[in-house]
Input
Amino acid sequence: MVEKLTPQMVITRIVGYGVLILVAGMMIVPFMWMVSTSLKTPGTEFSYPPEILPTQLDLTNYRTLFLNLPFGRYFLNTLFITLATVAGQLLICSLAAYGFARLNFMGRDTIFVLYLTTMMIPFQITLIPLYLIITQLGWVNTYQGLIVPGISSAFGIFLLRQSFLNIPRDYQDAARIDGANEWQIFSRIFLPLNGPTLATLGVFAFMGTWTDLIWPLLIARNEQMRTLELGLAYFNARPNAFLQPNWPLLMAGSVVVMLPVLIVYIVAQRYFVQGIALSGVKG
Amino acid sequence: MLHNPAASAAPSPGTGAGVLGRLLTLWRRFWSRSNEKVGYLFILPSLIHLIAFLFIPLVFSFFLSFRDWTKPSFADAPYVGLDNYQFLLGDRRFWQAMGNSAYYTALAVPLGMAFSLAIAIVMNQKLKGKAFFRTLFFMPVVSSWVAVSIIWLTLLDPNVGIVNYVLKLFGVTGPNWLGDPRSAMPSIALIAIWKSAGFNMVIWLAGLQAIPQELYEAAAIDGANRWQSFWRITLPLLAPTSFFLAVTGVIGALQVFTPVYVLTKGGPLDSTNTAVFHIYRRAFQEFDFGYASAQSWVLFAVIFVITVIQVGLRRRNEEIQY
Output
């Protein structure tokens, strides 16, 4: 299509690109600074004028993180906790979503409304009692203490139910006539047909668990159990205000925390953005 | 509830048969073929999870708030009635923390919404490379709060930080951002606005794309300029989106914790001691679980009332039709 550009349209575009480039700079410069600082020798990070682009390629900080500090352990902890939480959410939420979307049992809609209301309860109100319960169960400093409270969510059930409702009823009826039971219909028809929504929930659960601070802060008291996010936060907490922090090492730690999430985001971007738009429209 | 033994021993025949009859119908309906009882099995895992990790803690929290619970043990926690709540009313540090949260919310939510709306309006134009820009704008959204906070600690350093360096190029002497009680909270709000802009932008964009293009064409024919069509068409038709962002934004902002924990630890001089950070310290550093629970219920009540007011305002505005 050939479009005739009026002077006004040209100005609009120039202003538009100007704004986008300015905002992009604001968004990206802090990350460039993080990467370039993480590659500097400690003590040389601040120069005048500041350097946004890397001028050194010193990998010592990354080596220190994994060889002298337990970041390898933190990494494996975080990976295990996150994957277990994602798997739990996908299974438990999709089972419940199938029940709420496709089976007519007594009290179904009442129970579903109850689930929805729980989405309005702020996390801070259950934090203290949940911590005390986990303490009583002897789950402090354990993987189950870090994983189990997060393996189901009303939001996940809501998201999947919406998606399951869009599958034509005929599919279910035809499978029933062929003698399939509900588990088979769920696992062989509904799960494969709802891949994108499952991916959306998976990406959300991954990001939320990987970057969570407050729950590991309460439960992972032992250094061996810390996640990357918590390990980095502890590492940032200086014993006293006069001690100069090791910024290049902290920046290298930040890169290690962020990289997996950024990779997941770039690979699964479509699902992530879709999920946000969906929660906004439905909310 | 009144409990009258005489009434339950000799119920009036009519109501007794009525209750029994209703129970019988319920039971029949439960056993009928149309009740697909396998559904209970499908929702069972999530229901157990919900009860164990949400309902029980919720009831427990309420019960805790009437107790003097200073040790993480169930053995000795005397019931103190409304003492915690009574003490709370006169607790200046708690109300100061609530005020700090309100100040943070008043800064971060409206400015954050305006900033992200501006980006969304530009992104809604016919421009190339929008997917690329969206990916960039989303980097802060998906990043961890701890990592982002550490980056901003150096960027906002009064002596060697990039922000004050850039300000100096323009002849402005930058403040001691996070080190000054006057600028510490606005600094945290600015970082939060920066971090959430991409998220809000996507939601604004979804709202903008739902506005029919013909409305703008009709307005242009009637001689409206862009500024007028923004105020008369775009903004009123975005009301559901702005409502959603305002409600979720306020709820989230009143519970801000992680940036405070990493950036300032509530300082300097308690200027960034927000409500949830205050509750966290009371519970997990001073081990005063009962009192901290009472504080979290008061915060919940405040959030609830504000949400109800927002919903009410929305209802009233909905009556104005275009």
